[in-house]
Each structure stands twice: as C-alpha cells, then as structure tokens.
C-alpha cells in the first residue's frame, strides 16, 4: 500500500476529495438506475458496473495526467484547439435532432463504440489555451487589436460551434473565460467590449434562427421557453422535472428516507444525472446535501491554494481555469434542483452517471494535480539542498 501511495503526487486533499465524491456516488447512481432500467431495460447492476468503469477510467486519467509536467500543456493546448474545432464541427454536422432542433452533442468513437460529448473536451482545452495566452501577456501592455486573432477568435469559434445544440455549456464556458481573463489581468475595458460582442452575437443568432427555423434547426425555442417558464411558472416538462425534484427534496428532511428508498427516482427524468442531487437529498436528507456542499467548497479552497502556491503565472491561471468550472457546474446543478436556476442539463461532477462528464472532470483534476506536484518537487529539491552537508561546508570555507 505504501508503494502505491509513493507514486501519487500532488495535493493530497484534492485526491481525497475526488475519491470521497466518487465513492459516495455509487449508492445514489445505483439507486437512481432503476429509472434507467424501466426506460432502457437491463439491470441496475449493469448500470452500477458501467458507472464503476467510467470512474475507474477517470481515475486512470487523473493518474496519467498528473504525471505530465504541466509546462507541456501550453503547447498541447495550441495543438488541441484546431482538433477540438474539427470535432465540434463534425458533431454539429451530424444533424441529430430532437423535435426538429439541433441536438448534436455526441460523436461515436470508432472501434470501441463509445459516445463522447465533444463540448466538454473543448471546454477544458479552451480554458488551458486561454490560461496560456493570458500568462504570455501578463507583464505586457497589449492593445485590443493584438489580442483578437490569437485569443478571441479561437474562443468565439469554439462557442459558436457549441451554441446551436447546447446553450447552457456555451454560457458557462463564456462566463468562465471572462472570469479567468479578469483574474489574469486582461484590461477591463476590453472585457466590456467582448461581453458586448458576445451578447450581440447571441442576439443575432436568435433572430436568424427565429427568422429561418427550417434552414437552421436549433434549440432556441427550448432555451427561451425554459427561461420564460422559470420566471412565470408555466406547466411544462421542465416544470415537471423541477416539481418532482422539489418533492424529493421535501421528502428527505434532515436524515433522508434511507439509501435506495427514494420514490421520486421512479418519476423524475434524468434522476441519475441532471437531477441526482434531488435523489441524494431524498435518500440522505439535508446531511447528504451539506456533505456535497462541504466537499465542493473544500475543493474550491484547495484549488485556490494550489493556484497561489504555483511557481509560474501559467500554473496559477491554469489551475483556476480548469478548476473553477468544476465547482461552478456543481453549484448550477444544485441550484437547478432547488429551483434557483432554470433547467440546464448540467451534471454533478464526479457524482452523476455519464462517461464524458466524469472523464473531463478527471482530466481537469489531473491538470491541477500536475501543477501541485511540480510545487512539491521544488520544495523537495530545496529541502535536499538545504540539508546537504557539502553545501554547508562550502559556505564555511
């Protein structure tokens, strides 16, 4: 066992948080899988095994990525940006529709036959790319014109390709890019221009989509109806989901009804993914919900600590760029379940079922651990040099 732990580097608290969240996820996913069985057939145990395999591969990703010196992610982000743009384009051109709207979010990986959501990979790659560029110009005086082509063109190309099928992910990624740019010292007056441009582009897209619905199948009506229904309480499918989630939460009380005893899991769509937080509170009560809040708050604290201790500007921005979206997504997922936010379709990181979400969260955690591992390596070298008797002897001679 000691030999195994000797190969694990980086912030031990983040390792512990990821492990605790993964272990905790098994019972809620196994319980909520009964709803998937009713819809898709099979057995709850098969969904349990599938979730286990997703997490096992996820932790293999964490281990492999945290062994890579984080300086290499600078160059890899530049290589990966064109690749994810191609993947997003292929995904969008598949033409998958739901009720006549563009719903192309996944592509099928050849040979293995596994579906992969390209937008989640694009989000991580884009945050690394933005962190790289911001660290490059940190100590420089730049004009807005200088930054348009190397920074904002890739950002908007990625967002434009995600937008037709997934507005919530587009909005989250754009918000995180703006936040990272602000933290990275990008001029505020330029950020105002970018935010204005983004809102104008979104408005233009909506107007064009409304004017030519047959030429451009999209989910604009779905987005707008969700926002309208959230504000006026209309009776829709999204409202049905929220009502069932609220019933589940109200049934949980302080201690919950007990593991596997949820009733609403049989009626609540996406009970093992988008609305698993409601099932957790129903089965584990307020205590279960507080446990998750503490875990994600602890993760946020450790992300900030690792960022502050990094030895380079790129390391600091990299950790915040890939780490903050994890916590932000978790808060949005929980806010949707308690009707503080419109339905978005965002999963609960490391808890919800779903391979792509787990793998990309683990990729981000692996990058964070790579940065913290480098810091530990520097500290070990400093300690070794300080204890070297030859150094002491050379100072006294």
Any overview of this molecule?
With 397 residues, the chain is mainly alpha-helical. It has one domain. The protein is built from 14 helices and 4 strands. The protein has helices at 2-6, 12-40, 44-66, 72-93, 118-136, 144-162, 167-183, 188-211, 220-232, 237-252, 276-309, 313-337, 355-386, 389-396, and strands at 97-98, 101-102, 106-109, 114-117. A two-stranded antiparallel ribbon has the order 1-2. It has a two-stranded antiparallel ribbon with strand order 3-4. β3 (106-109) and β4 form a beta hairpin. α7 (167-183) packs antiparallel against α12 (313-337) and α10 packs across α11. The longest helix has 34 residues, at 276-309. The protein is globular. The two termini are 45 Å apart. Mean pLDDT is 84; it is low at 97-102 and 390-397.
Primary descriptors:
397 residues, mainly alpha, two-stranded antiparallel sheet, 14 helices, 4 strands
Secondary structure topology:
Elements: H1 2-6, H2 12-40, H3 44-66, H4 72-93, E1 97-98, E2 101-102, E3 106-109, E4 114-117, H5 118-136, H6 144-162, H7 167-183, H8 188-211, H9 220-232, H10 237-252, H11 276-309, H12 313-337, H13 355-386, H14 389-396
Antiparallel strand pairs: 1-2, 3-4
Helix pairs in contact: 2-3, 2-11, 3-13, 4-5, 4-6, 5-6, 5-7, 5-12, 5-13, 6-7, 7-12, 10-11, 11-12, 11-13, 12-13
